[in-house]
Amino acid sequence: MVKAGHIAKRIGRIGRHEQIVLTTLAVGVGALGAGGAIAFREAISLFQYGFFGFSSEYFQSGLETVPAWRVVAATTGGGLLVGLLIHFFLPGRRAHGVADVIEAELVKGGQVQVRTGFMAALVSALTLASGGSSGREGPVVHLAACLGGLVSNVLRLDRSARQTLLGCGVAAGVAASFNAPIAGVFFALEVVMGNYALGAFAPVVIASVTGTIISRIYFGDFPAFIIPPHGIESFWEFPAFAILGVVSALAAVSFIWSVGVSRSVFDRIKIPIYGKTALGGLAVGLAGLGLPHILGVGYEATDQALKETLAFEMLIILAIAKTAATAVTLGSGAGGGVFSPSLYIGAMIGGAFGVVATEFQPVLSSGHGAYTLVGMGAVAGAVLGAPISTILMVFELTGDYELTIGVMIATVIASQITHNAYGHSFFSWQLAQRGVDLSGGREDVLMRSRLVADIMRRDYVTVSKRADLEEVRRKLVGVPYGELFVVDEENRLAGTVTLPDLSEMAFNDAYDNMMLAGDVLRERPPVVCAADDLEKALALLESESDGHIAVVDGIRTMRLIGVLHERDVLVAYHKSVLEARG
Asked: Which of 190, 219, 248 is at the close of a domain?
């Protein structure tokens, strides 16, 4: 009988057959991703019944028969339960989502914690089922990615294969959630994997298609939203779509900013996480008594906006209220994503804009339902930093080429303004809060994930500050890179000495008994800490035009522990470029 470990080793070294094996594994990951999406939605339904006594996608309508006290008790009690789970079972005592998948893909080489994935899904399901104002697609993406990571862990796959299967899980999760296989592919490539490498494309497509098929078998072949047909009445509407893109950018920036402000406010409250999530649940529950539209995922209100049944005033009120409710839910530390809220807010903003545009030029307008759809795409694309996949998703939902052109215009403008004004998508902002910088190319991210301690050498030569020039000259001759590090009695770096620093004393021994190393050293030389990343080290090497830099254990202690050679950093950068292209 062949041992599983032997099979795993062979799979991990599949070499030229890797693409075939990955494509085959993508079918399994796609099935797992779809299964995770189905299980997550069913869990929400089950928990919702426990909290409110009913289970329905039409959450807003179902609340009409629920007493006010039970609504507030459910949101508050659900927040408390979510906070307790986060406090005792989740790393970092925080909810996990798409940002963690991006970090795992780009920084951690596809490594994910599967147990964390299941617990994070439970936390998000309880948040949404109890009325928390957030989205369900982000948690599905995280869960599906973790299931892809489970396959990688079992088979002990290498870094590249792990990253590909992680992307396969993401694609399957998005495709199963929205019944949109093309959007699933491009969301995985655009947002999570950060590239469109041909080697990853085929497995991701297979996983997305598999997830879609399984989702359609279970739920039926229905899109996430039932959208009435729309057509563009006049090409004069395209300037209006461009203006809507600007308005959508303002809505997207306001949304991301609001979550940040809410997070800062809750961080100042010195109580455990479960107290914060309970407090957030209480606030959202009280607001939901007057506006039940903002509780839960919010698909019913989004449908109402698409069907043009909401008045202008209500559209504005719901856009503001949903922004605030989601900011409170996520800012308090509860689970859930931002996909559904951004679609919701975009629908309200687009619908309100459409009402004004139709009132201004009724003959040329396609109806404010068309603007609702365009606003959904524009705000979601800007918030997620995923204009391509958002545009494709809208096309899959409508099948309308003309309207998709309007979505393209508004989404690109909104995304560009958001990027220039705010500098982050929601996910990159989340990672920046944790000290993970995704700016620059993929190779820059890889350089930031590697430390000076990983490549520093110990071939440095030291000399005491009290050493005479004869000893300095003798040691300099034996140093291959022509630089001595001057240290004190406790091995703290005092400076450096090179042959040019000796000037006329370099070849004149008349000063040997008159001068010491401490008299000729260069003070305050450039240094890096062992815990610094290679991107910072490379920037310092370039700015100082120095081929060798001392490595110390810390800026305060300044104890010398190694030397960093520019050639080693450049080799590491070259490897990062090759890895990114791979």
From this structure: 219
> Are 227 and 397 in contact, with CB atoms under 8 Å apart?
yes
Indicate the number of domains in the chain: 3
Are 451 and 426 within one domain? no
The vertex-15 CA angle with 11 and 17, nearest 5°, equals 75
Whether 133 and 183 share a structural domain: yes
Maximum CA pair distance of the chain? Answer: 100
Nearest residue to 225 via CA among 373, 442, 73 = 373
Residue 231 to residues 263, 352, 387, 400: CA-CA distances in angstroms? Answer: 41, 18, 22, 8
| DSSP states of 275-321 | HHHHHHHHHHHHHHHH-GGGSSS-HHHHHHHHTT-S-HHHHHHHHHH
User: Of 64 and 443, which is predicted with more confidence?
Assistant: 64
Q: What is the pLDDT of residue 13?
A: 47
Distance CA 507, CA 394 (A): 76
Residue 222 backbone dihedrals phi, psi, to 5 degrees: -130, 140
Q: What is the CATH number of the domain that holds 353?
A: 1.10.3080.10
Please give the Cα distance from 355 to 348 (Å, whole number).
11
Share of the chain above pLDDT 70, in %: 85
Q: Which residues, including other chains, have CB under 8 Å from residue 532's CB and lie 6 or more apart?
A: 451, 452
What's phi and psi for 296, nearest 5 deg?
A: 70, -155
* 560-565 and 527-529 strand pairing: unpaired
Do the Cβ atoms of 300 and 61 come closer than 8 Å? yes
Q: Mind listing the pLDDT tens digit for each residue in 239-273?
A: 899 999 999 999 999 999 999 999 999 999 999 99
pLDDT for the residue numbered 396: 81
- The sign one gets for the Cα dihedral 276, 278, 282, 288 is positive
Q: Which helix (H) or strand (E) holds 383?
A: helix 368-384
**3-state helix/strand/coil string of 426-477:** HHHHHHHHCCCCCCCCHHHHHHHCCEHHHHCECCCCEEECCCEHHHHHHHHH
Which residues are bridge partners to 268 per DSSP? none
Whether residue 87 lies inside any domain: the answer is yes
Contacts of 488 (CB under 8 A, 6+ apart): 464, 465, 494
For residue 395, give the amino acid letter: F
In a domain, 377, yes or no: yes
| pTM for the predicted model, two decimal places | 0.79
140 Cβ contact list (under 8 Å, min separation 6) = 36, 37, 40, 121, 173, 174, 176, 177
527's enclosing H/E stretch is strand 527-529
Residue 187's domain spans which residues? Answer: 4-219
Give the C-alpha separation, 491 to 262, whole Å: 48
pLDDT above 60: residue 557: yes
DSSP at 37: H
Residue 80 · residue 278 · CB < 8 Å: yes
Q: How deeply is 491 buried, as exposed, middle or buried, from its count of CB atoms within 10 A (0-12, 13-18, 19+)?
A: middle
Contact 521, 494 (CB under 8 A): yes
Same domain? 292 vs 363: yes
Within a 10 A sphere around the Cβ of 501, how many other Cβ atoms? Answer: 17
Same-domain status, 174 and 212:
yes
